[in-house]
Design brief:
eight-stranded mixed sheet, single chain, alpha/beta, 324 residues
């Protein structure tokens, strides 16, 4: 009940889109200070397109790694988000799919472009959290866990075509307009939060790609506006969905690793563009998910397919800051 009351207040603050700094939440680490979590994106299809099979393997890996939480990179409900707080898609695409004991942890969710085609306030509502205590969805926020800070960024409003050429889609821009003020304040808040962070590791999560060899490719608005902020503030990982694949691209001009986990259900076979092989460390055009394990000195990333097989691993380390 205490978490629900706090979350109610948080959503009330977040609905005022551009008047306050980013909300800060706390995630307790394990007793040894480490963290482990799973990342899945582009998933909400009522169990179809292998969503249920991905969920099954997430449960198995989640138990093996003793995960602390799950990150969703957006497009939580297809095709058009939620129609309201009573939309049965919430239960059929979330509650009845991710049933494994290891997945009964906090889920930290960002919004994707498909979510903006429904009622955004529904996904942000604390009523959903009351219905399923795992659910936490905010536009942009910070998650602190001592050695690591996560910066969740609402990327959909950055993309010009959703405003200038929405085709036959209706986007719910309540809380975003006026757009330029929203984006300007968000970028300033992210820059300030990253600059002030003293965490050993800095991880930014958004729905849209910054670098990708997949169907959507780079999101030019994020390359122009968000990427310079990440580079200037020593961000370690940028984690996203949007492209329905699993992918790892390294940065030639900064330590940032671009990790795509958008294989939660429907994937796009064979839809890949050429990319410099020195930067494209891994690309898989099928369903799956990602795990991340973090200690004060090391990050370990692994990608899994729909059968739970490990497709790609990557690790990096930093020196411990020992007391004098």
């Amino acid at each position: 009940m205490a978490f629900y009351l706090v979350f109610t207040a948080l959503v009330g603050l977040c609905s005022v889109s551009s008047v306050a700094e980013l909300l800060r939440l706390e995630q307790q680490a394990k007793a040894d200070g480490s963290l482990s979590f799973l990342v899945v994106g582009d998933w909400g299809r009522r169990g179809s397109f292998n969503q249920s099979l991905v969920a099954l393997q997430m449960g198995r890996v989640g138990e093996e790694l003793d995960i602390d939480f799950v990150v969703s990179t957006g497009d939580n409900f297809y095709d058009n988000g939620l129609s309201g707080i009573h939309d049965t898609a919430f239960e059929k695409s979330f509650g009845k799919v991710y049933t494994a004991p290891s997945l009964q942890k906090q889920w930290y969710n960002v919004l994707g472009n498909h979510d903006y085609r429904g009622k955004v306030e529904a996904q942000l509502s604390p009523i959903l959290t009351k219905m399923d205590s795992r659910w936490l969805c905010l536009r942009s926020f910070i998650l602190n866990s001592e050695i690591v800070e996560f910066f969740f960024v609402d990327t959909t409003p950055f993309v010009d075509k959703y405003f200038t050429d929405p085709e036959d889609h209706d986007y719910d821009w309540k809380g975003v307009l006026p757009r330029q003020a929203y984006l300007s304040n968000l970028l300033q808040d992210v820059d300030t939060a990253l600059r002030d962070s003293t965490a050993k590791w800095k991880i930014v999560v958004g729905h849209h790609t910054i670098r990708s060899a997949g169907h959507h490719g780079d999101t030019v608005e994020l390359v122009d506006q968000l990427l310079p902020i990440l580079q200037a503030n020593s961000v370690d990982l940028y984690i996203n969905g949007h492209d329905h694949c699993l992918e790892h691209i390294s940065s030639p001009d900064s330590p940032i690793q671009f990790l795509t986990s958008g294989g939660g259900s429907k994937a796009w076979r064979g839809d890949v563009q050429w990319w410099n092989p020195e930067e494209l460390k891994f690309y898989y055009d099928g369903q799956g998910f990602m795990s991340v394990q973090i200690t004060a000195s090391q990050v370990d990333v692994a990608f899994y397919d729909v059968f739970g097989a490990v497709l790609h691993k990557w690790s990096t380390s930093k020196e411990l800051n020992l007391p004098m």
